[in-house]
């Protein structure tokens, strides 16, 4: 049993992953092409690939363990505004974070399809997003994705079939989505455990609340691997977990630097509102269940920005705060710095997304780094404008619903619900469906209130 994809497909992605990690993989693709479908031969090749060492000439230093990450951070913390919110203001920001996340996710969900995430017809993904809205007479983007567009016939573009309840003509609530399920699960985790939990608790939470079909890529592989090392009767973390967890997050998991961990951190960061250091630690604990290196850094980067957004509005400071918690000699750090330069010099929205696409299109559309770069650039380019921020992040292509959700979460926490455009929030009717028991449906405002109570319990 391989999980998300057949063994041959996992191997194909593992060759890419090992090369990106700094290993010399010359000849492996040719050997894979010649090897046939014998499981023993495929597994032997996989094991050989995993035994490769990072080249001494690899210019990055990318640890996964906490102490080593701390040693690689750039010295000096970003100075944020001091929180002086009333309870009403705090609650408004928590509601803004949840509403913003839902709105951004719903905008991007119908176009989380191949034509827009990867590109087609010789066009980049962002170009196809633009064509869809243009041919629906809805350009520039100022509302949810139109269901009907002449681009379907003219350019053979297709929306995602599983996102049709989020199109402009039908949206009445936040429909179920992995970006929302993980936010709900993060809330549950902090309600039950407070500050005291580990990556093992993350695995138990998933096994208790997520069906295997509800996870994908890195999460699928870690979910499957965790099943091999635990039982339903284990209720507390075993001493051997410290020896098992690296196998759980890496075995037959070529997606370990993809975006999955980055989209899971929002509710954890809400619990650490105003405290980006704690948010980054929570994100690290969660992410290291299924990810390594840049996959972990993406989670820490986003969590720190979300937590900071509760007390800080300057988007450059928010991005700098995110950078301050990750290794300064990592690929993600370098990529975010490049994205910031692009955002600061972009002349308009199209200039921004086209340059971001060209700079980072060498990554898989679901990788952490390109999507985090787009998130950072969208925040800086928007200069505090909620609509401009979420529409830029979705226009950019790649993982459209994830990026819209992350940017919406940050902007919502920063601005507060009362400052969000009513035409984006009202169509959600204060309702989300998460396909998680107790949250299907539930009022978005109830989730926000519960997140605020978690925050107060964690930070008495």
Characterise this structure.
The protein is mostly helical and 460 residues long. The protein is globular. The chain has 23 helices and two strands. The chain has a two-stranded antiparallel sheet. The N and C termini lie far apart (46 Å). It folds into two domains: 44 residues, no CATH class; 329 residues, ADP-ribosylglycohydrolase fold, CATH 1.10.4080.10. The longest helix has 22 residues.
Which class of the largest domain in CATH terms?
Answer: Mainly Alpha
**H-E order:** HHHHHHHHHHHHHHHHHHHHHHEEH
- List the domain count as a whole number: 2
Beta-strand proportion: under 5%
Structural class from helices and strands? mainly alpha
Compute the number of helices: 23
Using only C-alpha atoms, the radius of gyration works out to 21 Å
Helical content stands at 55-70%
Biggest beta-sheet profile: 2 strands, antiparallel
Q: Strands of the biggest beta sheet: in what spatial order?
A: 1-2
Low-confidence stretches: none
The shape, in one word, is: globular
Concise account of the structure shown:
This protein has 460 residues and is mainly alpha-helical. Helices cover 57% and strands 1% of the residues.
Keyword list:
23 helices, 460 residues, mainly alpha, 2 strands, ADP-ribosylglycohydrolase fold, two-stranded antiparallel sheet
Blueprint of the fold:
Blueprint: H1 7-20, H2 28-34, H3 39-50, H4 66-71, H5 87-108, H6 114-117, H7 125-134, H8 151-155, H9 178-193, H10 199-209, H11 217-229, H12 241-250, H13 266-271, H14 276-287, H15 293-309, H16 315-324, H17 331-345, H18 349-360, H19 368-382, H20 386-395, H21 400-415, H22 422-425, E1 431-432, E2 442-443, H23 444-458
Antiparallel strand pairs: 1-2
Helix pairs in contact: 1-3, 5-20, 5-21, 5-23, 9-23, 11-12, 14-15, 15-16, 15-21, 17-18, 17-19, 18-19, 19-20, 19-21, 20-21
């Amino acid at each position: 049993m391989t999980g998300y994809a057949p063994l041959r497909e996992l191997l194909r992605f593992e060759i890419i992953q090992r090369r990106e990690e700094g290993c010399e993989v010359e000849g492996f693709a040719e050997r894979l092409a010649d090897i046939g479908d014998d499981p023993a031969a495929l597994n032997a090749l996989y094991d050989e690939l995993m035994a490769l060492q990072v080249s001494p000439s690899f210019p990055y230093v990318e640890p996964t363990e906490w102490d080593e990450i701390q040693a690689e951070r750039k010295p000096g913390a970003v100075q944020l505004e001091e929180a002086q919110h009333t309870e009403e203001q705090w609650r408004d920001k928590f509601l803004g974070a949840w509403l913003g996340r839902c709105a951004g996710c719903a905008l991007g969900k119908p176009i989380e399809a191949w034509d827009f995430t990867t590109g087609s017809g010789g066009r980049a993904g962002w170009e196809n997003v633009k064509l869809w809205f243009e041919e629906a007479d809805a350009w520039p983007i100022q509302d949810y994705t139109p269901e009907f567009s002449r681009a379907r016939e003219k350019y053979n573009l297709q929306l995602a079939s599983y996102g049709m309840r989020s199109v402009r003509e039908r949206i009445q609530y936040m429909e179920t989505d992995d970006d929302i399920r993980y936010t709900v699960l993060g809330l549950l985790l902090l309600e039950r455990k407070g500050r005291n939990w580990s990556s093992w608790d993350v695995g138990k939470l998933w096994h208790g609340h997520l069906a295997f079909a509800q996870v994908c890529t890195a999460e699928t592989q870690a979910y499957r691997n965790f099943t091999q090392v635990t039982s339903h009767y284990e209720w507390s973390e075993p001493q051997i977990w410290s020896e098992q967890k690296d196998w759980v997050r890496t075995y037959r998991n070529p997606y370990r630097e993809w975006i999955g961990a980055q989209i899971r951190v929002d509710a954890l960061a809400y619990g650490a509102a105003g405290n980006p250091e704690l948010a980054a630690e929570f994100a690290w604990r969660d992410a290291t269940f299924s990810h390594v290196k840049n996959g972990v850094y993406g989670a820490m980067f986003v969590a720190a920005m979300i937590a900071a957004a509760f007390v800080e509005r300057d988007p450059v400071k928010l991005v700098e705060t995110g950078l301050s918690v990750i290794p300064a000699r990592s690929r993600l750090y370098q990529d975010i710095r490049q994205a910031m330069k692009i955002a600061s010099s972009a002349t308009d929205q199209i200039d921004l997304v086209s340059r971001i696409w060209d700079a980072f299109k060498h990554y898989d559309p679901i990788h952490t780094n390109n999507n985090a770069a787009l998130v950072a650039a969208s925040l800086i380019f928007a200069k505090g404008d909620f609509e401009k921020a979420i529409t830029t992040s979705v226009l950019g292509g790649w993982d459209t619903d994830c990026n819209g959700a992350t940017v919406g979460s940050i902007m919502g926490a920063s601005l507060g619900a009362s400052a969000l455009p009513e035409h984006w929030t009202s169509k959600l009717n204060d309702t989300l469906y998460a396909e998680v028991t107790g949250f299907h449906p539930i009022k978005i405002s109830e989730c926000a209130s519960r997140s605020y109570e978690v925050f107060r319990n964690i930070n008495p």
